[in-house]
Amino acid sequence: MSFKDKIIKERLPNHLAIIMDGNGRWAKMRGEHRIIGHQNGVEAVRQTVEGAAELGISYLTLYAFSTENWNRPQDEILGLMSLLVEAIENETPTLMKNNVRLKAIGDLESLPEEVREKLQGTIDNTAKNTGLTLVLALSYSSRWEIMNAVGKIAEKVHSGDLAPEDVNESIFESHLTTSGIPDPELMIRTSGENRISNFLLWQLAYSELYFTDLFWPDFTKEELYKALLNYQSRERRFGKTSEQLNDN
Ligand code: FPP
Questions:
Q1: Which of 3, 198, 229, 235 is the 20 to 30 A CA-CA neighbour of 121?
Q2: Is 25 a pocket residue for ligand 1 (Cβ < 6 Å)?
Q3: Whose CA is nearest to atom 8 of ligand 1?
């Protein structure tokens, strides 16, 4: 019996976010170059997107490239960028066939032109799809996103378009790159690191966190189901007591 059969469809997260970590170590263990790890990570992306879409999850956010990743060796950055272009190009027909809508968050202007163009092309082509929304976090870091939002709000206050007393959580959220995307109920990180690493700091405020020792290229649909089952065994209280939740 697959873990899938045990999943309660009515209690799935609406939004699942994933830090795909461990590609480099996966490659090193095999005496391969880090880029081989990223290449094999693409298959795990495929399985996860397919698994999430089949289950009917509404949003899947994947941390594909962080602001800090720009500090990696140049050949790895170039390798990752061409892998992204290739994956976007190759996967667009599958995204269309599976009714998946692509979005991207992060400092997209800092991406190479070719990546930006391919990305925008697929975002436009899939914009009317109504199934899973796949959100790629690219050149993303949460502190960058928060400072970017603060800057935009400060400009509006300065120009008189926004009164300081009107700045509230919902105004702040509408200036984040995730504006319009609900907060994740579950965040998964692979590779045995138990950190959030500058990912969705605001949006993960009430999320359940799930950590697995598997390196990202070893992450499969079955592992996704396992994480979802673990999530379903938890009680989400949002600061309330168990009794208060049971009374409702
Ligand atoms: C982390 O592993 C992974 C990344 C920085 C990149 C993730 C990219 C992919 C899986 C490929 C393309 C993505 C898409 C969406 C098609 P790491 O290099 O930090 O591993 P390490 O911690 O072992 O060094």
A1: 198
A2: yes
A3: 64
Q: Which two tokens stand for residue 10?
A: 């009515």
The arrangement of secondary structure in 13-141+183-233, i.e. its CATH architecture, is: 3-Layer(aba) Sandwich (3.40)
Query: Side chain identity at 1, as an amino acid letter?
Result: M
Please check whether residue 32 is in contact with residue 41, taking contact to mean a CB–CB distance below 8 angstroms. Answer: no
Quote the pTM value. Answer: 0.94
Active-site residue, from 69, 98, 125, 230: 69
246 carries an active-site annotation: no
Q: Quick check: 1 pLDDT over 80?
A: no
Task: Determine if ligand 1 sits within 6 Å of the CB of residue 79.
Answer: no
Instruction: Note if 21 is an active site residue.
Output: yes
Could you tell me if the CB of 33 is within 6 A of ligand 1?
Answer: no
pLDDT score of 244: 73
Q: Which residue has the tokens 């480099």?
A: 24
- CA 213: distance to chain centroid? 19
What is the rounded (10 degree) CA torsion for 119, 121, 122, 126?
Answer: 140
